[in-house]
Specification:
The complex is a heterodimer of chains A (about 375) and B (about 500).
Chain A lengths: L8 E5 L5 H25 L4 H13 L2 H26 L7 H18 L5 H30 L3 H21 L23 E4 L3 E4 L1 H18 L1 H11 L1 H6 L4 H28 L10 H11 L4 H25 L4 H22 E5 L6
Antiparallel strand pairs in A: 1-4, 2-3
Chain B lengths: L6 E10 L2 E11 L3 E7 L5 H8 L7 E6 L2 E3 L4 H6 L2 E4 L11 H6 L10 H7 L15 H14 L4 E5 L7 H16 L3 E6 L2 H7 L2 E6 L2 E7 L5 H9 L17 E11 L5 E11 L3 E5 L6 H8 L7 E6 L2 E2 L5 H6 L4 E4 L14 H5 L15 H13 L16 H14 L4 E5 L7 H16 L3 E5 L3 H7 L2 E6 L2 E7 L5 H19 L1
Parallel strand pairs in B: 3-8, 3-9, 6-7, 7-8, 13-18, 13-19, 16-17, 17-18
Antiparallel strand pairs in B: 1-2, 1-4, 4-5, 9-10, 11-12, 11-14, 14-15, 19-20
Helix pairs in contact in B: 13-14
The chains are: A mainly alpha (about 375), B alpha/beta (about 500).
């Protein structure tokens, strides 16, 4: 046998790790990611500290900027909650983008054509329409999955493009604002706009912030303390066991997916009736996909998702500030998000394994 | 000392988190010797063999092969160093013949031609037969041939007899004997003490990751081995509880089912099960046991035939509908974590699986389940780090206690269990048998799908033998023998072999 050097390192699986320790590890990963991003910025010839400072200032420097950051957080957090519910069931809903758009279209219909109704009736009606439209759009892939075993990832993804282009069609055709020069939808009438309420320390933001906070709490309670939440967890963990226990698996999948997509639809309604005040192509704006990263980083926790969605929004807002001040493209935000995601997933690996050294015994 | 041992382990240690799976294990196997490795579940047998075959790396200690220090970093290294592992699960290409499987990807590595190996070791294999046409025992022979032809002179067999009939076990032992004659070093892992006594030269007993002693087989007996293995004397007798025979609870008539490809899984299976009786089901693995259980439990649908529970027809109904019909049947499937339990959830949450729906309203109340769990943990002596620990962190025996405990707590009239002691150590197995006997005394009808014929014979009242999906016999255990069951199990298989001969 040829002489080989003894193996000195190998990977060993770790056991259960204290929670606090694990979160510390993930925090370190984020710091490491920011450092890596810093190296990248330095290579471009900028001072990372200045840039990060500008980003922070741009996102949280004044109440006005804080309000803008919150307005970004609301739809992202809400969408994440929707995605999270489906993911808990191991149903890979990456169609939030389309579900947001479906909700937005349905809500806009009432804003454009039923504006004579009093606001107190119109807004709840729009919200209901948003939830129903988003939910029904999400039911389609769920029904096909339970009936024919289709792949939900591909199915939800493809459905996105249909609704997104439906918006373009409406904007350029039936719903086009005849008074405007561009092919755009008209602004919502006053009665179809969300009222604003003061958020502590920040000032007036549309009531979506209350809806989002309430939804975080509701979802947490739903998943932890209800029979339906329990069913979702069992189906997600082990569908065969769920069937064995007599759970109506089909019904659970359909119901959960309706709720998941319904929350996304609500996010779409809040976006058109809140900051956008009209139906645009950018109503989802990639949030349906960003939400997937958010919920993974948050390890499928509702409160965690809220925090991560806020951080993502800080980064996005900060990067647009960076763009105006330093003329660095705002895509830097995506790059940073990518690096952070990468590092945190790397940290997950080291939370499960450690590197070990072999000790030699005397022969 | 003339020749160094073929395999020598010195202070071999492997830790997983805080658990030391193998703790400074010393062990030797000589050429021309069969060493039985005996130990309960979790005693470190599998970890030890995984280190020998290069799947795990030891944390400390050395492996010496023929007196030379060896570093086995991958299964490839293990093969190169002459170590042949025979796992419980076969890795064969079904559509190829035995010969093709042996030669596959081994250009230049074959040391012994397959034909010669078959002759030398007295194997009963037709080299040109396709693997998918083979019985479990033939497949195992192909696996053994595979490593022998690659020139392995140190063989490790992981519970090779678990899937074999009594006759096939004798054939295997014959082959092992010839290997010994050829000067190979053989390690055989087994649970069954009779087999240890029958085939091995020496026995090494592992207990809690440590070597609890190595003895010459001729100097020991079943009882002292058990004591060494468990750490205390234990009653090995499986007893048949006496209970008055009740009414017919389960009646299966001419049940037939096919797989999606149209091949029959079970054919014309008919039997009755009465209260206060344990009906055993014997058969080579894959004879239709799984289909039979899953059809009765409502998880699969039969092609034809009927199932009656206390007079109600239930075939074709889903588990949910069966529950709705008020039928109280419990099913303990063979793959506990794959079906029946949720590995990622705690014990209380697993207890809720079948009862949560009876709770009123929208909310889930866990308090009752937590109390039940505390009671169950102490009653059944379940080893767990706490109420919130995930079930997948528990050992196989403890997982099974949770499943059986839950099903029994629902006071079923009929209990269907498939291989309830598979992977369980002796102590845990005896607990399970006691639990089944207790249910029998309560008048429950039990369908017991088993693999250990000794246990079937001593525990069950009657035994139904399945062979290739058909009932080949239903016998009274009192008047049956192992040889008879073995013959009935392979009835059709031997017919087929005659055609080829």
């Amino acid at each position: 046998m040829p002489k080989r050097p003894p193996l000195s390192f190998h990977l060993v699986q770790r056991g259960e790790i204290p929670r606090l320790y694990a979160w510390g590890y993930r925090l370190l990963a984020v710091l490491f990611a920011l450092m890596t991003g810093g190296v990248f910025l330095a290579a471009l010839g900028y001072s990372p500290l200045n840039i990060y400072g500008t980003m922070l200032k741009g996102a949280l420097g004044s109440p006005g900027m804080q309000r803008e950051t919150i307005k970004l957080t609301i739809p992202l957090a809400l969408t994440s909650l929707g995605v999270l519910l489906a993911f808990r069931m191991r149903f890979w809903n990456i169609g939030a983008e389309g579900q947001i758009a479906a909700g937005a279209i349905a809500a806009s219909y009432f804003a454009y054509f039923q504006a004579h109704l009093p606001t107190a009736v119109l807004l709840p009606l729009m919200a209901l329409a948003g939830i129903l439209a988003g939910g029904l759009w999400g039911l389609i892939p769920a029904w096909f999955k339970t009936r024919f075993g289709t792949n939900e990832t591909l199915f939800t993804l493809m459905l996105n493009y249909i609704v997104m282009n439906l918006i373009t069609f409406l904007r350029e055709g039936p719903w086009r604002d005849p008074a405007g020069g561009f092919a755009a939808t008209p602004r919502f009438p006053k009665g179809a706009r969300l009222p604003e309420l003061p958020l502590p320390f920040v000032g007036n933001v549309h009531i979506g912030w209350i809806v989002t906070l309430a939804m975080v709490l509701l979802l947490f309670l739903y998943m932890r303390y209800t029979k339906q939440g329990y069913e979702i967890a069992v189906v997600g963990e082990n569908e065969r066991t769920a069937r064995y226990a007599g759970m109506p698996v089909r019904k659970i999948v359909l119901r959960t997916m309706f709720l998941s997509a319904g929350i996304c639809g609500l996010a779409g309604m809040l976006q058109v009736a809140g900051p956008d005040r009209q139906l645009t192509d950018a109503v989802a704006g990639g949030r349906g996909f960003a939400a997937v990263s958010v919920v993974w980083l948050a390890r499928l926790s509702p409160f965690g998702s809220l925090a991560v969605a806020f951080l993502f929004s800080v980064m996005q807002k900060g990067c647009s500030m960076m763009q105006t001040e330093y003329r660095i493209p705002a895509s830097m935000s995506d790059i940073l998000q990518g690096i952070i995601l990468f590092c945190v997933l790397g940290a997950e690996f080291f939370l499960q394994y450690r590197i070990s050294r072999r000790k030699e015994a005397l022969a | 000392m003339s020749k160094p041992p073929a395999i020598q382990l010195i202070g071999l240690t492997k830790r997983f988190d805080r658990v030391t799976a193998c703790d400074r294990i010393d062990l030797e196997v000589n050429r021309g010797e069969i060493l039985a490795l005996l130990g309960e579940n979790g005693s470190g047998k599998t970890t030890l063999t995984n280190m020998l075959s290069g799947i795990y790396q030891p944390d400390a200690g050395s492996i010496l092969l023929d007196g030379k220090k060896a570093y086995i970093r991958s299964p490839r290294d293990a093969i190169r160093l002459g170590i042949g592992m025979i796992h419980q699960h076969f890795k064969l290409v079904e559509v190829l013949s035995a010969r093709e499987n042996i030669l596959l990807g081994q250009a230049g590595l074959i040391r012994i031609p397959p034909v010669e190996a078959v002759r030398t070791f007295g194997m009963k294999v037709d080299l040109d037969k396709k693997v998918y046409q083979m019985s479990v025992s033939e497949k195992q022979s192909v696996e053994i041939l595979k490593v022998l032809c690659r020139g392995a002179d140190k063989l490790v067999l992981d519970e090779p007899t678990a899937v074999l009939t009594p006759q096939e076990i004798l054939n295997l032992f014959d082959t092992l004997g010839k290997m010994r004659g050829e000067g190979k070093a053989v390690i055989i892992i087994t649970h069954k003490l009779d087999e240890v006594m029958a085939i091995s030269d020496r026995v090494t007993v592992l207990r809690r990751g440590q070597n609890a002693g190595t003895v010459f087989t001729e100097d020991t007996d079943r009882y002292s081995l058990t004591e060494r293995m468990v750490g205390r004397p234990i009653d090995l007798e499986v007893r048949r509880a006496e209970a008055p025979l009740g009414q017919t609870l389960l009646k299966v008539e001419q049940l037939t089912a096919r797989d999606p490809g149209g091949r029959p899984l079970i054919q014309d299976v008919s039997f009755t099960l009465r209260g206060g009786e344990i009906l055993g089901v014997a058969g080579v693995a894959g004879s239709g046991q799984k289909a039979l259980c899953e059809i009765i439990a409502g998880l699969e649908k039969p092609t034809s035939g009927s199932v009656f529970m206390e007079g109600q027809r239930i075939d074709g109904l889903s588990p949910r509908e069966i529950i709705r019909h008020g039928v109280s049947m419990a099913f303990i499937p063979e793959d506990r974590l794959g079906m029946g339990l949720v590995g990622g959830m705690s014990i209380p949450d697993n207890l809720l699986l079948k009862t949560y729906r009876d709770q009123k309203g929208f909310l889930l109340r866990r308090k009752g389940a937590r109390e039940d769990a505390v009671r169950m943990i102490s009653q059944l002596n379940i080893q767990t780090s706490g109420l919130n620990a995930r079930l997948s962190r528990l050992s196989g025996g403890n997982v099974q206690k949770v499943l059986l405990g839950r099903e029994i707590s629902l006071s079923p009239r009929v209990l269907i269990t498939a291989y309830p002691v598979r992977g369980l150590d002796i102590g845990a197995s005896m607990t399970i048998y006691d639990m089944l006997n207790e249910q029998k005394r309560k008048g429950v009808g039990i369908l017991f799908v088993g693999e250990d014929l000794d246990v079937l014979l001593s525990l069950c009242d009657r035994i139904m033998v399945l062979c290739a999906g058909r009932v080949s016999a239903i016998v009274e255990s009192r008047f049956a023998t192992k040889a008879l069951l073995g013959m009935k199990m392979t009835g059709l298989v031997t017919d087929k072999e005659d055609e080829y001969a």
